[in-house]
Write a structure and sequence with these properties.
heterotrimer, A mainly alpha (235), B alpha/beta (264), C mainly alpha (220), A: 235 residues, mainly alpha, MetI-like fold, C: 220 residues, binds adenosine-5'-triphosphate, binds magnesium ion
Chain lengths: 235, 264, 220
């Protein structure tokens, strides 16, 4: 009983966590680094796929839909491992020289692919939420196709999809914790190193959980605050 | 208070004594007393906000009154007297037992959308009354016959018109074989052409001797069908008596104003 | 010589199958645990005043912690503090349950709050007890609005279950990684494994979509 209590206290003794801040903090920065790179990839791929899904060509539409479904229906962990090992081998065979992906590159590609599936759906829903009548009204006034897109469709679509896109950013940040699995030195990776070296895992894992919680909770709350007024204006 | 013109001599089914109800600091009922006898049709009239809905909801304890007493079929609603003679809050089970004897029909129908018409009707008789399934189904079909909706028994409510939904809601309340029926503006959310079918059903119930308390803005219906009319104003009974007395020959200034607006 | 995937995956299909069975077990137990825990949390937040805040904090904590962090936390910290879980398998199930419980609690709350007051009052006016109202009126009706998110959460649990391999629960992912380490045929093994996951998840999501469409058609 007493021993149990002592262990409990130890588990939340965050002083140890603070002691190793010099290795842990750079790890956390790595999470943000991966996050920002991945957002770029995911949004880019998502926009392309959403455009395909909205195209008037049936084949392109199918490709867009298939791509989004494939990305969404694959567990992220397997995407990560697969990207890390398989494409380099295929490329090596094709180019006849040794190709390998750095963990960071593999992580960004894999997480980017995985989240682009969700972004595709959000972008598509946002753009198709703009009533046809608005587009027709703009065209009837003589606005060009691209002007209509820029001035009429996109402003409305962005408003519509912003809250959902924010949620996906939050999910994406959560996913960045997976990168330690292919040895990208993020916070969790550093935690496991330190905990192996000191054999004091409990407070370190508690500290990591707490830090991630605070960041994500804060981020999600901000996102909510930020997108609520938008949501109302789009009504 | 004058009891002139009260024709019925039946047993008292609902008795309300000096009822007060506040919402926060707003006093909505300021001491309302009334009696409804078996077989009576009592109509509550009054301007919007005068407390008609609140009064009905207090009777089946959907709202808790702040003071006063309600008796349904000679049983106390929402309170009990303990061994020492003190007034106590009633147990939930006792309130529920009494509610079985009070049928309520809402302005918004409130049919349960995940159940078919027949399922809506048999739900409470089966699970609250625990009556045998065969009897319940037989009676439910008879009630559907009465409200003219036998062919809709397996439809979901969303497929019915407002008038049809309200008739089902009436059948649902009747299926519990209540001692009194409460109607809260049953036709107010209906399109004008659907009002007649619901009033028709209510008229038939009145003729069969169903005890009813009706809140309505249908003055014609109130005049023809009610035995007694109560005119509520700002949470107080301003006038009561037969329809002729209250509606056609109003004595108080306020009721004169109210009815002259409605009748002309 | 046989093709690499015959040599590795096909020849060890029994191992892969065992892994898939473990995946299904972890997913099922984790999901059921999540539904139960989520429902309890939702009830606490909605109806038990004194426990509202502790429950809220738990929900937010579960929701805002990445599943992988949660898994490591449950696996390393809980046994010392709570004396449980006592095996990796239990830890995996617990982490999955805890992770989804937060989401499901919010889903349940939104579903229950979405029921119109009138429907509940109509039931109470007929003398139904609170329990009966919950069981017969609120939950079935809320289920129709919640079904899509509940089913989606099930798919999330399957996807997250791949991570239990990290704490040596022998699920499909674990077996795939082990075979890869033995044979070093990542192309064949990992691609086949991915295909299995994709097939299972896609089929389930099609079934779920068909089911929710049917629900909507029926009642609305
Ligand atoms: N739940 C509530 N909380 C606060 N105030 C309420 C509530 N319900 C009713 N009121 C107030 O009580 C007063 C009486 O309302 P009630 O619904 O009983 O009037 P009514 O006579 O039925 O009117 P109407 O003809 O519009 O239905 C109104 O001023 C209303 O705003
Ligand atoms: Mg009213």
């Amino acid at each position: 009983m007493l021993e149990n209590l002592q262990q409990s206290l130890e588990a939340f003794d965050l002083a140890l966590f603070w002691e190793y801040r010099a290795v842990l903090l750079p790890g956390l920065l790595y999470n943000f680094y991966v996050f920002f790179l991945t957002v770029g990839v995911a949004v880019g791929l998502g926009l392309v796929a959403a455009t395909l899904r909205l195209s008037s060509n049936v084949v392109l539409r199918w490709i867009g839909t298939g791509y989004a479904e494939l990305c969404r229906n694959t567990p992220e962990y397997i995407t990560l491992i697969w990207i890390f090992y398989v494409p380099p081998l295929l490329l090596s065979a094709a180019l006849d020289r040794n190709v390998s992906f750095s963990p960071l590159l593999a992580a960004v590609i894999a997480l980017g692919l995985a989240s682009s599936g969700y972004f595709t759906e959000t972008f598509r829903a946002g753009i198709s939420s703009v009533p046809r009548g608005h587009i027709e009204a703009a065209r009837a006034l003589g606005m060009s196709r691209s002007l209509t897109m820029w001035r009429i469709v996109l402003p409305q679509a962005v408003r519509h999809m912003l809250p959902e896109a924010m949620n996906q950013m939050v999910s994406l940040f959560k996913s960045t914790t997976l990168v330690s699995l292919i040895a990208v030195p993020d916070l969790l990776y550093q935690v496991s190193l330190v905990s192996n070296a000191t054999s004091k895992g409990l407070p370190l894992y508690s500290g990591a959980a707490l830090v991630y919680f605070l960041i994500i909770f804060g981020f999600a709350t901000l996102a909510q605050r930020f997108s609520d007024p938008w949501r109302q204006r789009s009504r | 208070m004058s009891e002139v013109g009260v024709t019925s001599t039946g047993r008292v089914v609902v008795k309300v004594v000096d009822l007060h109800k506040y919402f926060g600091s707003l006093e909505v009922l300021k001491g309302v007393s009334l009696e409804v006898h078996q077989g009576d049709v009592l109509t509550l009239l009054g301007a919007s906000g005068s407390g008609k809905t609140t009064l009905l909801r207090c009777i089946n304890h959907l709202e808790q009154p702040n003071s006063g007493e309600i008796w349904v079929d000679a049983r106390p609603m929402g309170f009990r007297i303990d061994a020492a003679g003190r007034r106590r809050r009633a147990r939930e089970a006792d309130v529920n037992a009494l509610r079985m004897d009070i049928g309520m029909v809402f302005q918004q129908f409130n049919l349960w959308p995940h159940m078919t018409v027949l399922e809506n009707i048999v739900e409470a008789p089966l699970r609250v009354r625990r009556w045998p399934r065969r009897d319940v189904h037989e009676r439910a079909m008879a009630l559907l016959e009465k409200v003219g909706l036998v062919d809709k028994k397996d439809q979901y409510p969303s497929r019915l018109s407002g008038g049809q939904q309200q008739r089902v809601a009436i059948a649902r309340a009747l299926a519990m074989q209540p001692k009194v029926m409460l109607f809260d503006e049953p036709t107010s959310s209906l399109d004008p052409e659907l009002i007649g079918e619901v009033l028709g059903v209510m008229r038939a119930l009145a003729e069969e001797g169903t005890t009813m308390i009706v809140v309505t803005h249908e003055i014609g219906f109130a005049r023809e069908v009610s035995d007694r009319v109560i005119f509520l104003h700002n949470g107080l009974i301003e006038a009561q008596g037969t329809p002729e007395e209250v509606i056609l020959n109003p004595t108080s200034e306020r009721s004169r104003q109210f009815f002259s607006k409605i009748l002309h | 010589m046989d093709a690499p995937w015959i040599r590795t995956v096909w020849r060890h299909r029994d191992v892969m199958w065992d892994g898939l069975v473990v995946t299904m077990q972890v997913t099922a137990i984790g999901f059921v645990g999540a539904v139960v825990l989520g429902f309890v949390l939702c009830l606490l937040v909605m109806y038990v005043k004194p426990l509202r805040w502790p429950a809220r904090v738990l929900i937010e904590f579960f929701r805002a912690t990445p599943i992988y962090v949660q898994l490591l936390w449950v696996n390393y910290v809980w046994p010392g503090v709570l004396g449980w879980p006592s095996s990796f398998f239990e830890a995996g199930c617990a982490a999955l349950a805890v992770q989804s419980a937060g989401y499901l609690a919010e889903t349940f709350r939104a579903g229950i709050e979405g029921i119109s007051r009138g429907h509940v009052e109509a039931a109470r006016a007929q003398g139904m007890s609170s329990l009966l109202v919950m069981r017969r009126i609120i939950l079935p009706q809320a289920f129709h609005t919640m079904a899509p998110s509940i089913m989606n959460q099930f798919l999330v649990v399957i996807k997250s279950s791949t991570l239990v391999s990290v704490i040596a629960v022998p699920d499909l992912m674990y077996q795939a990684l082990r075979l890869t380490a033995i044979w070093f045929e990542p192309i064949a093994i990992l691609s086949c494994t991915a295909l299995v996951y994709i097939t299972v998840i896609t089929c389930l999501s099609l079934v779920f979509k068909w089911y929710t469409d049917r629900l909507r058609e029926r009642y609305l």
